[in-house]
Amino acid sequence: MAKMLFIGRLGGWEIIVIALVILLLFGGKKIPELMRGIGKGVRSFKEGMNEAKEEAQKIKDDIEKEN
After folding, report:
1. Torsion angle, alpha carbons of 37, 40, 42, 47, to 10
2. How confident is the model at residue 11 (pLDDT cuts 50, 70, 90)?
3. Is 35 exposed, middle or buried (0-12, 13-18, 19+ CB in 10 A)?
4. For 58, how many CA atoms within 13 A lie in the half-sphere containing its CB?
5. 57/65 Cα distance (integer angstroms)
6. Which of 21, 26, 37, 59 has CB 3.0 to 4.6 Å from 30, enough for a Cys bridge?
7. DSSP state, 1?
8. 14 phi and psi, to 5 degrees?
9. What is d(CA 27, CA 4) in angstroms, rounded to the nearest whole number?
10. Residue boundaries of the structural domains of the chain
11. d(CA 26, CA 36)
């Protein structure tokens, strides 16, 4: 719970400092690759969630047809 409160209190300067530290750690060339990988992961997660919702809807429809 305390971690969630900390995230909400980040200001502009803190975000800039974090971005600079990330830039220094990973370098300018690695950051686009890192972001691309994160984007692919998020897209894959969303696709999985949509598939799960569709499957749950099919099961619900099958149950309603039986009644």
Report:
1. -160
2. confident
3. exposed
4. 6
5. 12
6. 26
7. -
8. -65, -40
9. 28
10. 2-66
11. 14
Task: Place 6 in a pLDDT band, splitting at 50, 70 and 90.
Answer: low
Angle at 21 between CA 45 and CA 25, to 5 degrees: 75
Q: Return phi, psi of residue 10, to 5°.
A: -75, 130
State both tokens at 66: 């039986």
**Distant-in-sequence, close-in-space partners of 23: CB < 8 Å, separation ≥ 6:** 31
Q: DSSP class of residue 10? A: -
What pLDDT digit, counting tens, does each position of 12-50 carry?
888 888 888 888 888 878 888 888 999 999 999 999 999
- Is the full-model pTM beyond 0.90? no
Q: In the predicted model, is pLDDT for residue 52 greater than 50? A: yes
